[in-house]
Amino acid sequence: MNFILRTREVGPYAMNTYVIIDDETSISAIVDPGGDPDAILQLAMDSRVDKIILTHGHFDHVLALDEVKEATEAKVFLHPADAEAFDLDYDYPLHDGEVIPIGNKSVKIIHVPGHTPGQCCIDLGDGRILVGDTIFVGGPGKTATAQDFATTMENMKEIVFKWPEETEFYPGHGPCGIIGKEKPAFDAFLSRGWDSDTHGDVIWIEE
Predict the structure, then answer these.
(1) Among 22, 40, 51, 106, which residue's Cβ finds the most Cβ atoms within 10 Å?
(2) Residue 132, φ and ψ in degrees, nearest 5
(3) Is 61 a member of any domain?
(4) Inter-residue contact 171 to 134 (CB < 8 Å)
């Protein structure tokens, strides 16, 4: 059986919080507690939360972190690069390729820097990947500098768009998407090229 995956839009920045539940043990992990702690705890209500996994350290993804951690006593997982960049405390470091158990099942961590230095995706192992702000329907996550955008594009080519085309991705904001549906627009963007100072909010299709 696959993980049960629940989601709710929370906080003032329309952030998608996810709860990953192992149906065999009812053990769960909360991903990106971005606000409305009571709503998040209700989303995980019939499970035992033992992990809080942060895809990255931006403030809109951690607004309810302290309240959720206190209520669940769960351990916090975060990539060390984002812990340093955003001065966040955590219990266990995330690393690329790491396998993290949730009940009797496990997820795999994929480090995809660009949006932030420690941005990670969470592969559920069944064709679904929680991507944080790595990629959205229509374009990549926002980048702060041209170098960050260059890093993002390299990782899009070498990691994200090498996932199977049927892969469903679940971002930190907005609707979920399918890699194969995004790929034609991404390929067209690659073919057009971009200015050397490109960064910020970028979309694949020219308006």
Answers:
(1) 40
(2) 55, -135
(3) yes
(4) yes
Q: Is 93 exposed, middle or buried (0-12, 13-18, 19+ CB in 10 A)?
A: middle
- Record the pTM: 0.97
- Of residues 68, 84, 63, the one with CA closest to residue 76: 68
60 neighbors 36 (Cβ within 8 angstroms): no
Could you give the number of structural domains in the chain? 1
Q: How many residues does the chain have?
A: 207
What is the domain extent for residue 19? 4-192
For the chain, give the longest Cα–Cα distance: 51
In a domain, 48, yes or no: yes
Cβ neighbour number for residue 189 with a 10 Å cutoff: 19
CB 124 within 8 A of CB 2: yes
Q: Give the per-residue SS3 of 135-195.
A: EECCEECCECCHHHHHHHHHHHHHCHHHCCCCCEEEECCCCCEEHHHHHHHHHHHHHHCCC
CATH number of 178's domain: 3.60.15.10
- pLDDT tens per residue across span 185-197: 999 999 999 999 9
Q: pLDDT-derived band of residue 206, with 50, 70 and 90 as boundaries? A: confident
